[in-house]
Each structure stands twice: as structure tokens, then as C-alpha cells.
Write a structure and sequence with these properties.
By secondary structure, the protein is of the alpha+beta class. It has 17 helices and ten strands. Strands 2-1-5-6-9-8-4-3 form an eight-stranded mixed β-sheet. A two-stranded antiparallel sheet has the order 7-10.
């Protein structure tokens, strides 16, 4: 009879999951099926039982079948064997898990105990070491006090040296030994007790072996100083400093002085610039415009009452009377429309006074534009010359450099000069670059600084010399008898070079702005220094030289 016939009630009524739990354990319960235990442990030798278990195991392992379609059939004897072995296995597994858990807890407790003991040991060691160092520092400080007392009593250098050696050889004073080792190069004959004191200062540091002799020497001396004396000692080089420290201090001092000097210099430049701009603006306010004779007379009455001690020249224009009262060397006001040039002009007894002096006589690197001292202001000379600085910040005559290009002339072709005695307009005739020293042109100086020429021929020869040098032809004609205005300023093509703008007075009935076609001079004549600077050949090396006559 087959096993199925022995127990037909099991056929489709037993739970599939119940059989699975009994015949096959989950992986986390041990990872080995009950089937393997029954087959390999030798607990059941019946072929019939083995065949039944094998059949059931195969059915349970097949995941392609649905639960209600698996024809699971086992005999009662097979189920009994399975139940017994399953119960035994559960008991073994639970006991094994409890045993492993207890063992792990025991090992963990043992490790914690070991770590706690190790930590306590280390902590005790550090506390002892810290306490020992503290005692050493207290002892060292006490020894320092004793040495200072001895020093006050006049202890000799030799005695102090002996004490240092005795302390250094004392086995009970390890810090002093280290201090002595670091200070073995001390020259007792030169420093004496102070060096001993410096060596003992090192005992207060944790790492005595890394302290240099300079630090030993310097620390005590530094602590003795207070306030300003301490600052000076730490800032400026002294004889106790090593070479590198002296060098560091010197470089630091020079750097600070350089910064202060630059700040003062640029601050001074800024202040002077603002003062110059403010001064020119203020002087413009003193100019009085009048419309008729009645206003002129009224204004004169006010000014003379305001400045009773000033003698005004006869025939002068009342609009400049207050400027003349402020500075009797004031002679004119110069302006060039479409530029920033709008300044007062003075005239002194020489051409040096106003180079570094402003309108009020105070020092200024801007100076004040001035007329050549030989010029006649009441009746203008043939050639009126006005000088002014070319400042790199754009003030004074700096904008004359725009006339080096034809566009500068086309933008501002007219110069206005209003003197104490009359108002005049001048049309720009030419712009050229020349030298101020004969050595910059093979011993020759093109002398454009003259007031009069003796003849029309001399005038025409001068104009010809200008034509040879001017950078472009402005289209303005010039004739003998025309009065000239020459503006001179420095330029930077080469050292001590001059930029000259030559203009002639507008004739009666002539339009101030009219001029012919502007033509660029392809080969203007420059001083020899210009060609040397540009590294070019000088085509005018053997040219004729013009001199005023």
C-alpha cells in the first residue's frame, strides 16, 4: 500500500505553508533545510520515508506552481519524523543563539574594562607630568628672584657665571640643564648676570631646546623695559640684535618711512592742485563787467574807497582793478575758448619769480603764467611772450599739447588776451617743438624769445624759419607789421624740450575764426636731440641757422 493510501486525509487539506515551515527553514534561522538534516544525519534509513521527503521537498522548491495546485501527500509516519526533528532543531537553534549572545556581551564588557583602565593610566601619567612641570616653573621663578636680589647687591660677573654652571650641572634641575645647553655659547664676560637671567627666562617655556640664544639674551632685557623705552627697543636696531634682526628692523623702518613720504608727497600734490583751481576760480570773481561810462565811474569810486593806498595806472580797465589791487604785477587775463586754459597773467622784473610762486606770492609747483619781463603791456610789443607750466594733471598750459595735432587747432583756433589796457584776439599761425639748451641742437638755439625785430626782412626771415619747423600749415596768413603772441610751455619729447604756439593778432574787420586749408608738414625741422631720441637721421644737420636781428 502506498503512503498516500495510508493517510488519504492529508492529500489536499494540509497547509502548504505549514509544510514549508516544517521542511524548509528560512536562511536567517540557519540556512539549512530540514530535508538535508533528515537525509544526511542518518536519523531515518527507510527508503520509503526518504522517497516521500524527497518528493515533498521537490514540490516545495518549485516556485512555478500555484499553492492550491500542488498535490502534496505525505504519510503519518513521515509527518511524525518531520515534527520530531523540527522540534529538536528549534531547541538547538535557540540555545545556540543565547550562548552566542552571552559570549558577545562578555567580550564587549571585557573590552570596555580594558579601555577604561588604559584611559585612567594615561590620565594619571599626564597629571603627574603636568604637576612636575608646574613645580619646575615655580622653582625656576624662585631662582630668578634670587639672582635679581643678588644682582641688586652687586654680585660680580664671575660669581654669577659660577652659579649658572652649578645650576646647569645640578641633576635635580632638568630645566636649568636644558637652559644651560641652549645657552652654551653665552659670553659671560660681556653680558654677565643679564645673560644668566635671560637663560633662566627660557625655563618658563615648554620647549626650551628650540629657543635661540637671541631669545635668551633679549627676553630679560625686553621685560625690564616699559612704555616708550620698550617700544623703541623693539622697533629700532640695537647692539644686542643679531644681523638678521637688525636687517629686518631697518627694512621695516625704511618701508614705513617710504609709505609716509609717499602719502605726504601725493597729499601735498592734491592740496596744491585744489588750491590752484580754487585760486583761479576766486580771482575770476574779482573781474567786474560794466556796460556804460556811468557804471565804470561808479565802480572806480567803490574800488578806490576800498583800496585807498593803491595807485592805479591811468587808462587801465576797471574790470581788473581789484586783481591789480591784490597784486600790482597782474597784467592780463588769458583764455582759449574750447579749452580749460582760462588764467591770470602776471609780469615781474625777471622770468624766474613766478616759476614756483602763485598769484599771492606763496609757493606752488604750478607757479603762475607770466609775461616776458621785457614786453610792453600798455602798447603791445611786436612779439608778446607768455610762459606757463605743462602740468601732467591737465592744469595751466597742459592743453597746449592738443595743438600738436591739426584737430587741436580746428577745435580752438583763437586765443583771447585781455590786458589792463585792451582786449585782443589772436589767430594761431603755427605750432613747433624746439630746444631750450644749445647742446640739444649741436650748439644752436632757435631763439623765438624776442620783443622786436629791426626790419621787415628780419620779420619775414623769422616767419620762414617758423614755416620750416611748424607741424602743419593752419591756413592763416601773416605779414610784416602783424603783432605776434607766443605761448611757450614744456613738452616731453626729450628733456627740456619746448612746445611753442605762435599766433598773430586779428586785423580790424577780420573774422577771428576764418582760415584757409590746413596742411600737414611732412618733414618739420626738429632739434638734433629729437632725432637722437627717435633714432632717426637728421636731414637738417647742415641747414642754415636763424638768429633775431
Amino acid at each position: 500500500m502506498t503512503p498516500e493510501e495510508n493517510n488519504p486525509n492529508i492529500s489536499r487539506t494540509d497547509s502548504f505553508e505549514d509544510l514549508r515551515r516544517q521542511l524548509k527553514l528560512d536562511d536567517d534561522e540557519g540556512g539549512v533545510s530540514l530535508y538535508d538534516e533528515l537525509i544526511h544525519d542518518g536519523k531515518n534509513k527507510s527508503p520509503e520515508t526518504k522517497a516521500a521527503i524527497d518528493n515533498i521537498y521537490k514540490l516545495l522548491a518549485d516556485d512555478d506552481e500555484e499553492e492550491n495546485e500542488i498535490p502534496v501527500k505525505v504519510s503519518s509516519s513521515t509527518r511524525k519524523i518531520i515534527n520530531e526533528d523540527f522540534s529538536s532543531r528549534n531547541a538547538d537553534t535557540a540555545a545556540s543563539k543565547s550562548e552566542r549572545k552571552a559570549k558577545k556581551e562578555e567580550e564587549l564588557e571585557k573590552k570596555l574594562s580594558e579601555k577604561e583602565a588604559e584611559y585612567s593610566k594615561k590620565r594619571s601619567s599626564k597629571m603627574l607630568e603636568k604637576e612636575a612641570k608646574k613645580k619646575e616653573r615655580v622653582a625656576a621663578k624662585q631662582r630668578k628672584k634670587n639672582i635679581k636680589l643678588e644682582r641688586k647687591k652687586g654680585v660680580k660677573k664671575s660669581d654669577s657665571a659660577d652659579k649658572l654652571n652649578a645650576l646647569a650641572n645640578n641633576e635635580n634641575a632638568p630645566v636649568i640643564n636644558r637652559a644651560s645647553a641652549a645657552a652654551e655659547d653665552i659670553k659671560i664676560s660681556n653680558a654677565g648676570v643679564l645673560e644668566i637671567e635671560s637663560a633662566l627666562d627660557a625655563a618658563d617655556n615648554e620647549d626650551v631646546n628650540n629657543i635661540s640664544m637671541y631669545e635668551f639674551d633679549r627676553s630679560a632685557d625686553y621685560k625690564e623695559r616699559k612704555g616708550l623705552n620698550k617700544f623703541l627697543y623693539n622697533t629700532f636696531p640695537n647692539k644686542r640684535d643679531p644681523f638678521k634682526e637688525k636687517l629686518r628692523k631697518t627694512v621695516s623702518i625704511l618701508s614705513v618711512l617710504t609709505i609716509i613720504g609717499c602719502a605726504c608727497y601725493f597729499g601735498s600734490l592734491y592740496i596744491q592742485k585744489q588750491r590752484n583751481v580754487s585760486q583761479t576760480t576766486q580771482l575770476q570773481r574779482y573781474i567786474v563787467e560794466t556796460e556804460n561810462e556811468e557804471q565804470v565811474q561808479s565802480e572806480w569810486d567803490k574800488i578806490k574807497a576800498e583800496y585807498p593806498d593803491v595807485e592805479f595806472p591811468g587808462g587801465m580797465n576797471v574790470k581788473y582793478a581789484r586783481l591789480y589791487a591784490l597784486n600790482p604785477e597782474f597784467v592780463a587775463w588769458l583764455s582759449i575758448p574750447n579749452t580749460q586754459i582760462n588764467v591770470q597773467v602776471v609780469k615781474a622784473e625777471n622770468n624766474e619769480k613766478y616759476l614756483k610762486q602763485d598769484f599771492y606770492g606763496q609757493y606752488s609747483r604750478y607757479g603762475c603764467p607770466f609775461m616776458d619781463f621785457r614786453d610792453n603791456i600798455r602798447n603791445l610789443s611786436m612779439n608778446t611772450i607768455i610762459y606757463g607750466h605743462h602740468m601732467k594733471d591737465g592744469l595751466m598750459f597742459a592743453e597746449l599739447s592738443k595743438y600738436e595735432k591739426p584737430e587741436g587747432f580746428e577745435n580752438a583756433p583763437v586765443i583771447s588776451l585781455s590786458t589792463l589796457y585792451g582786449d585782443y584776439n589772436f589767430k594761431i599761425y603755427g605750432v613747433f617743438i624746439t630746444n631750450s639748451k644749445p647742446e640739444d641742437d649741436n650748439g644752436y638755439l632757435f631763439n623765438f624769445i624776442f620783443n622786436h625785430l629791426t626790419s621787415d626782412e628780419a620779420f619775414e626771415s623769422y616767419i620762414q624759419a617758423v614755416n620750416e619747423r611748424r607741424l602743419y600749415d593752419t591756413g592763416v596768413d601773416i605779414q610784416p607789421g602783424d603783432k605776434l603772441l607766443t605761448l611757450s610751455t614744456c613738452t616731453y619729447e626729450f628733456e627740456d624740450a619746448r612746445l611753442v604756439v605762435l599766433a598773430r593778432m586779428v586785423r580790424p574787420g577780420e573774422s577771428p575764426t576764418s582760415h584757409g586749408t590746413v596742411k600737414v608738414n611732412e618733414n618739420p625741422r626738429y632739434p638734433a636731440k629729437w632725432y637722437e631720441t627717435k633714432k632717426q637721421d637728421n636731414p637738417y644737420e647742415d641747414a642754415d641757422r636763424w638768429y633775431p636781428s
